[in-house]
């Protein structure tokens, strides 16, 4: 689904528009001119459906030069090894997440906890994948588009949002940090932290962008910042923003 001049949603499960595998997070492709950058990879259960979307827009898998991961939960990185092999792209992630994924540390990734608790089909796992660290504040330039990593813990550790600047517009790909309406995703996992979430909300509020594109529950292409401000306001009144329950499958 093309949503803007440069941005395509090529994967989306039940917590989104539900046109690829139901377990997929919203998976994006940004057109940088000659090359594409993919953001997250879906759950890896039916990656051929995402391939179908890429082909539908007349792109080739080999057009994808970089894959940026927001964090290592299964619905975001399950397809990482598959798409790395298919495209030959360089995979970049927060330094912690790059290590978890490369080592296959499913405990740190909360993949085993999620599978045991029925969030994924029985036997679901994530294939190890070589990934390079992309640290807070670093910038990747592809064609005329810049991608800046923004360390955004709270939902989990090793979480990057990506601030993307094109000649036309600025986008914040917020992963599972803050969703439309200022909603957040707290989960009973080892590295979810409310205090970190508050700092992340303040940090994102200081960034300049037009569009907010989270990994679930819809996008705002013009007034994205309002959703971050809403979360900040609730935190400042000592409240906790509404919970966004991410449906799996
Ligand atoms: Zn997540």
CATH architecture type:
4-Layer Sandwich
Structural class: alpha/beta
Q: How many helices in DSSP terms?
A: 7
Query: Number of domains in the coordinates?
Result: 1
| Shape verdict | globular
CATH class: Alpha Beta
Sketch the topology as an H/E string, one letter per element. EEEHEHHEHHEEEEEHEH
- The percent range for strand residues is 15-25%
Describe the largest sheet: 6 strands, mixed
Reading side by side through the largest sheet, how are the strands ordered?
1-2-3-4-5-6
N- to C-terminal separation? 20 Å
Q: List unreliable stretches of 5+ residues.
A: none
Ligand catalogue:
zinc ion
CATH superfamily placement: Ribonuclease Z/Hydroxyacylglutathione hydrolase-like
- How many beta strands in the DSSP annotation? 11
- Proportion of helical residues: 10-25%
- Evaluate the radius of gyration: 16 Å
Mean pLDDT: 96
Q: What is the CATH topology?
A: Metallo-beta-lactamase, Chain A
Supply the key terms.
7 helices; single chain; about 250 residues; five-stranded mixed β-sheet
Lay out the secondary structure.
Layout: E1 7-11, E2 27-31, E3 36-39, H1 47-56, E4 64-68, H2 74-77, H3 80-87, E5 90-93, H4 95-103, H5 111-116, E6 132-133, E7 139-142, E8 145-151, E9 160-165, E10 170-175, H6 194-205, E11 211-214, H7 225-236
Parallel strand pairs: 3-4, 4-5, 5-6, 10-11
Antiparallel strand pairs: 1-2, 2-3, 7-8, 8-9, 9-10
Helix pairs in contact: 6-7
Zinc ion (ZN) is lined by residues 71, 73, 155, 176.
